[in-house]
Amino acid sequence: MAVDEWLLETRNEPVLRVYAWRGEWGSVGYFGDLEAARVSLPGLSWVRRWTGGGTVDHRRDWTYTLVSPVGSALALAKGAESYRLIHEALADALRDMGEEVRLSQGDDETGAALCFRNPVGHDLVSPGGVKIAGAGQRRTRRGLLHQGSVDLRDGLDRGRLAALLAGRLAGRVSIEEIEVPGDWLAARVAERYADPLWTSGRPRVR
Question: Which of 120, 123, 130, 169 is the most exposed place for a label (fewest CB within 10 A)?
Answer without folding.
Answer: 130
